[in-house]
Amino acid sequence: FMQTMQEVYLILDAQLKKDKNKLQEKKFLEQYLSTSAYFIDVLRYKELLLQAKSILPKKQYIELSIFWSLRHREYARARFLAQKLSDIEPWMQLNIALNNDDRTKQLDLLYKYHSILPIRDRVTTALNIGSISLAQTLAFDGLEDNIYDYLLYQQSRDLIERYADRVKATLGYLGRNNIDRSYLDIKNRYYIARGWSFLTDLFMAKNRDIDPKSFINIPQNDNSLKLGLRKEFDRGNMELRFGMRSAVKDYFTFSTKLHYKLMSRVNIDLGYYNSTQADETTYLLLAGKKDQINGKIALQYLPSSNISLALNYNKYYSQDDYYLGDGYYARLELYRQIHSGYPDIALSVFADYGNYANEYGDIGVVKDITPYRGRVLPEEFYNIGVNLFYGIINKETYTRVWRPFAEITPYYNGYSEQFNISFGGGYGGSLWGQDHLSIGFNYDQSVNGTAESTLGIYLNYHLFY
Predict the structure, then answer these.
(1) Inter-residue contact 372 to 404 (CB < 8 Å)
(2) pLDDT tens sequence across 316-359
């Protein structure tokens, strides 16, 4: 579109340079103002628009003014100008209705002018009025007509990620503190109706002790099954999950979490987890569990930038319910999307802090897996670092092409008073069009401020059906 508009603009601009009086011709002036809005200086365009007021018919002049206002997000002015005409272009009406969140008007316009409205606005309208399947159909058909419409592709991808039925299977290996773990994790989301989805999560792991001096009697198998419900609504979503885990002991788990758009640029996340898996240390990973309350608030202060603060409080137990202690964790992060599209490049600066109170009484079954009697929880720690992401969209999200991804995080470890690093990378893309496969690895020198390091290798497969 932009290439075509530029070609037209250059032809008109060449004519204007040869004959300045062209700006007195109504047809030429309308065409020039329609195309030059994308390419010339803002002040210059405003001057031309002001000159056009006495030349163009009232309807054409107001519609060009509305177009300019919408392009520069001056929505209040666009609404004011629209009231001066009994009828304006349908795409302008829809744009104003979308900004006003006038869903009745959106539905009416979509019904009347379906074939001539801009495709991406049609998809957004279908989403707003609750017609998810229509939005998916419109996006799919639109991409069939124009595979190069990247913004429409983004809409289609977001629809698939948020609403499509999907199964995700992860086959992986984790090496941590003299423990090898191989695992298979299969998650499924099945849409029921009216924003409700049914969730399942089957996890199966096998552990192997590679240093008998560090651990004894570790659980050879670690399996869990979780079932849940997810509800999508206008400003967010909510989940409830119930499950059972079998490791050193068998026990039930429960969790609930909420994601909510508090206002246009502020999102909050709240969660409560009862007897969920703890992984702050290897002892906890193998023989512990935790209750957690967490919260996060994020401010999207620019389209490409946000700042977030996450807090959580944890109470730790052995899998046979002996109290091990509690702890707080906080993370402040400033995130900036440097480049969209591929390669998507992002940078974040973060600081996190953990403070844990370890109980030294009876630690239950944790004592059965280690010959040592020391801290089960991490020491107090803090990290300050930088995350650099490259092509990370190809790690998890549905994409049409195979491309590499990478992330690197150098950070200062306040517990060991040294600089550490974590990094990862891989390759991901679609196999046959409605799926996504990624193969990758990750490494961290210090997990949660401990002396433990981890190495993970994984294969993720997403099928959207």
Answers:
(1) no
(2) 999 999 999 999 999 999 999 998 777 889 999 999 999 999 98
Strands 323-339 and 418-429: unpaired
Nearest to 461, CA basis, from 167, 224, 162, 223: 167
Q: Which of 126, 144, 146 is nearest to 136 (CA)?
A: 126
Beta bridge pairs of residue 458: 172, 440
**Contact (Cβ atoms closer than 8 angstroms) between residue 35 and residue 9:** yes
pLDDT digits (tens, 9 = 90+) for 135-146: 888 988 888 888
Provide the CA 113 distance to its chain's centre, in angstroms.
32
Q: Where do the DSSP E strands lie in 177-320?
A: 179-193, 196-209, 221-233, 236-246, 250-263, 266-276, 288-302, 305-318
Residue 264, C-beta contacts closer than 8 angstroms, at least 6 positions apart: none
Q: What average pLDDT does the chain have?
A: 90
Task: List, in order, residues 6 or more apart from 412 with CB less than 8 Å away.
Answer: 383, 384, 385, 418, 419, 420
For 259, other C-beta atoms within 10 Å of its C-beta total 16
d(Cα 121, Cα 140) in Å, to the nearest integer?
Answer: 14
Q: Which residue has the higher pLDDT, 436 or 153?
A: 436
The rounded distance, in Å, linking the Cα atoms of 337 and 346 is 4
Residues in the chain: 465
The C-alpha angle 128, 129, 133, rounded to 5 degrees, equals 90
User: What is the C-alpha to C-alpha distance for residues 106 and 91, in angstroms, rounded to an integer?
Assistant: 11
The DSSP call for residue 192 is E
What is the H or E stretch that residue 369 is in? none
Phi/psi of residue 108, nearest 5 degrees: -65, -45
Backbone angles phi, psi at 5, to 5 degrees: -60, -40
60-96: per-residue pLDDT in tens?
888 888 888 888 778 888 888 888 877 788 888 898 8
Contact 348, 333 (CB under 8 A): yes
- Amino acid code (one letter) for 206: K
d(CA 257, CA 241): 9
Mean pLDDT throughout 391-412? Answer: 91
> Would the pTM of this model clear 0.85, i.e. be above it?
no
Strands 266-276 and 288-302: antiparallel
Cα distances from 428 to residues 2, 129, 172, 381, 439, in angstroms, run: 30, 34, 15, 34, 6
Q: Distance between CA 411 and CA 422 in Å, rounded? A: 8
CA 464 and chain centroid, separation: 17
